[in-house]
Amino acid sequence: MRNGQNIRAWIEFDGPQFEINVTIAPVAVSKPSRPLISYSNPKIANYVSTEMYVGFSASKTNWVEAQRILAWSLSDTGVAADINTTNLPVFLPETTSSSLSAGAIAGIAIACVVFLLICLSGGYWFWRKTKIEEEDEIEDWELEYWPHRFSYGELKQATDGFSKNDLLGQGGFGRVYRGTLPNNTQVAVKCVNHDSKQGLREFMAEISSMGRLQHINLVQMRGWCRKGNELMLVYDFMPNGSLNRWIFDNPKTLLGWEGRRRVLADVAEGLNYLHHGWDKVVIHRDIKSSNILLDSEMRGRLGDFGLAKLYEHGAAPNTTRVVGTLGYLAPELATVTAPTVASDVYSFGVVVLEVACGRRPIETWAAEEEQVLIDWVREKYLDGRVCEAADKRIAGQYVAEEMERVLKLGLACCHPDPQHRPTMNEVVAVLVGDEAAAAPAAVLSELAQAGESVGCSGGDTNAEESPLQSTV
């Protein structure tokens, strides 16, 4: 088959006997009496029909082999007509000389050297072009927004080439890596992808404004880097991770009540700064326990501003896209897509209940009437047993009146009517303020009246409703 000579093949199918015979011989040899391959099986009937197409197919493995059909004859009734092979061409394999002249060898060597130099030059040019695109090309509009720019090389080196070992987490908005800058400062690098440069520009305009936010209870943004349509945001690294890791899923070290109360106060102050303490209103839109990070001193900081929006004080939000996390979304967002500071307050109220009760907003393992945290705590409140909702794992670490006040505050923040929710100023007053001085007297009076009528140890559920109770 491989000598280059023409080969003739006879392929015969006997329908009644379900038999296929294949006979092969060189062109100059007549048909042998014994077929090379003979196969008989009744199952052949499953693969033929009364009308069929006849043709040729070929395949090859790891080598290249040229095969040509020079002539063929077909008959569906009896023996096919014989083929005249006298004038068929013969394609013999080409022969090559094993010896090369000195000139030929020298020419091949020179050609190889020239080819190698061309490849090296092309590789160097491509490397320089990529380096310029990744690190040195800064468009004017970028510096208009935020001058503190890291090079891609700096962040790649800081994260060990964006190694999986340095991956802190990932979500819908991108991946977060831990990195170490040349001055040994640890940072978190968040990689955010955008589909277009225009969308990236708009996103960067908002992020740049948020980068100028300065508050001890917000995760500080240190700078940025752009590579194509990917934006890398550099934040302060929070060594103790997110709040949810210290409360849920049987943590190695459970965060106690004092630590939880302090974190809630920290986050409340940070959120109050976003709503009322800056020259613009910042609506976070994704407040949840996994976005609350803990620094080296276990103080809470609000992070992840990937969904945040900026508005002028007194201006109406104009976004038409509902974003956030199930379980933390305010109910009004089901019909009114524009978020408000009140929708942030609702999400914070869910976090308050999470921290106090040690339960997630939705627990599928619980009984049907206990799956939704807000409904479960509200039922406890209406039954005069609100403190029964407190996390049993920290029993004995808190004063009952303080736990009661925090649980009621969480319910007040989660009121279905946004007009009846407290502002973050009032929330901070309850969590941080001194009852004798710092906290507004009206808020504390409401809390005191609510505590007298419905408390942890029971009480008169038919007492006259206080202003705070009407908002629970």
TrEMBL record:
| Molecular functions per Gene Ontology | ATP binding; carbohydrate binding; protein serine/threonine kinase activity
Transmembrane segments annotated in the record for this chain: 104-127
Q: Which InterPro entries would you find in this protein's record?
A: ConA-like_dom_sf, Kinase-like_dom_sf, L-type_Lectin-RKs, Legume_lectin_dom, Prot_kinase_dom, Protein_kinase_ATP_BS, Ser/Thr_kinase_AS
Q: Which positions fall inside the Protein kinase domain?
A: 162-437
Instruction: Name the membrane topology term.
Output: Single-pass type I membrane protein
The entry's protein name is non-specific serine/threonine protein kinase
Q: Which residues bind ATP?
A: K190
Instruction: Cite the SMART domains for this sequence.
Output: S_TKc
Q: Do you know which PROSITE patterns this protein is assigned to?
A: PROTEIN_KINASE_ATP, PROTEIN_KINASE_DOM, PROTEIN_KINASE_ST
Q: Which GO terms describe its cellular component?
A: membrane
As for subcellular location, the record says: Membrane
